[in-house]
Design goal:
With 225 residues, this protein is of the alpha/beta class. 44% of the residues lie in helices and 17% in strands. The longest helix is centred in the N-terminal third of the chain and has 19 residues. It is elongated.
Amino acid sequence: MLDDNYFSPDEHDLCAQGDAHIIDILHNQASRVFIISGPSGVGKDSVLERLREVFPSAQYVVTATSRPMRTGEIDGVHYLFLERAEFQRQIDAGDFIEHALVYENLYGVPKKPILEGLAAGQPVIIKVDVKGAATLRKLISNTVSIFLLPENMRSLKQRLQDRKTETPEVLLKRFRTACEELERVKEFDYAVLNEAGQLDRALQDIISIVEAEHQRVSRPKAIIS
């Protein structure tokens, strides 16, 4: 680095002005809210698990649900598992920014961690279904929404069957809903292909999106209505 003696008084002034601009750009940018969505079985949970390793300082908003815990799931990581009465109590208390009845179970996105993440200047990452994503985009301004795509519908059905968590009737309902949800991809900012066995590729695409959004010169502030 050049010694101060190499700079004239005018150059010192220019350095101070330029440094002030650089500091303003680097430190006065608003945090972003990233919404990750897609049909059942597309691999949202797997993506989130890996994102936690890449961006450990981000605020991950864990969706609450009244459904039973599946094998391999961890309370507070994959979902917040609540008894239905407790879920209803939190609805009545206004604890959820968005909630809905999905496949006979309640799901809701807690409001508090979103507010805490934005206040701390952290990127906020929310996993939610396609309808929930539409609601969040209405309630939170300037979100960045990412739709995870399967490579084809046959592969998606195979993934749903491999989970062995639904009856044939529920599986068919999820499969039909997935087809309908694909019609809404154009509502999202980005679409990322999560091909079976290619999680690393999908993860890298999402990492690139997050990093690119944080390099934006104009990073609009997320505001909850």
